[in-house]
Specification:
By secondary structure, the chain is of the alpha+beta class. 21% of the residues lie in helices and 19% in strands. The chain folds into 2 domains: 45 residues; 151 residues, Rieske [2Fe-2S] iron-sulphur domain (Rieske Iron-sulfur Protein, 3-layer Sandwich), CATH 2.102.10. The longest helix is centred in the N-terminal third of the chain and has 28 residues.
Length: 205
């Protein structure tokens, strides 16, 4: 780009043409500078196309207290992250006789989540919060019994409000429910203590 050179010298009230030229040149230079900066900054941010394609999502879970749940988005889907308490973990074994796939034989999770907790760390559950029946989002029903409108022997888990499918606190579906399989577990791994990367296996990192 060829720069416009303005002759040196004082600019006073008697030089309106030179003043207009200087103002126009300065404005053009500023606009050109902004035009260079914006594409550079944009190029460093994940594009909407990259997000839609499934770009991994980094999550800080260091402040997630026991019994709490947070939701993040990956590939346009809600991903639940739950810090399970000891009581929650104890309920998993008790639920097994009533589950369709207690051993997670169906391919709804990565190999490293094929265990009774369906997770890398027992206390941290990571699951896609979409029912495997018709795609509704289940609601958390963590309290035991009928405190949240569930049956008296309810051990805590999730209820799909659309057609009534029930899942335990590892996202495993109960028998005789519309949902045919457990909730999906996305690929994920720990970057550090308290930091998760969702959407990518450690072997692919």
């Amino acid at each position: 780009m060829t720069a416009c050179v303005v002759p040196a010298g004082p600019i006073g009230p008697a030089d309106p043409k030179r003043r207009q030229l200087l103002v126009a040149t300065t404005a053009a230079g500023a606009a050109a500078g902004i035009g260079v900066v914006i594409p550079l900054v944009s190029s460093m941010m994940p594009s909407e196309r990259a997000k839609a394609a499934g770009a991994p999502v980094e999550v800080d879970i260091s402040r997630l207290a026991p019994g709490q749940m947070m939701t993040v988005e990956w590939r346009g889907k809600p991903v639940w992250i739950i810090h399970r308490t000891e009581e929650m973990l104890a309920s998993l074994k008790k639920s097994e006789p009533n589950l369709v796939d207690p051993g997670s034989q169906e391919p709804q999770q990565p190999e490293y989540a094929t265990n009774e907790y369906r997770s890398i760390k027992p206390e941290v559950m990571v699951a896609i919060g979409i029912c495997t029946h018709l795609g509704c989002s289940p609601t958390e029903k963590f309290e035991h019994g009928d405190a949240q409108g569930m049956q008296a022997d309810w051990p805590g888990g999730f209820l799909c409000p659309c057609h009534g499918s029930q899942f335990d606190l590892a996202g495993r579906v109960y028998k005789n429910m519309p949902a045919p399989t457990n909730l999906e577990i996305p690929p994920h791994h720990y970057l550090a203590e308290g930091r998760l990367l969702i959407g990518e296996d450690k072997s692919a990192a």
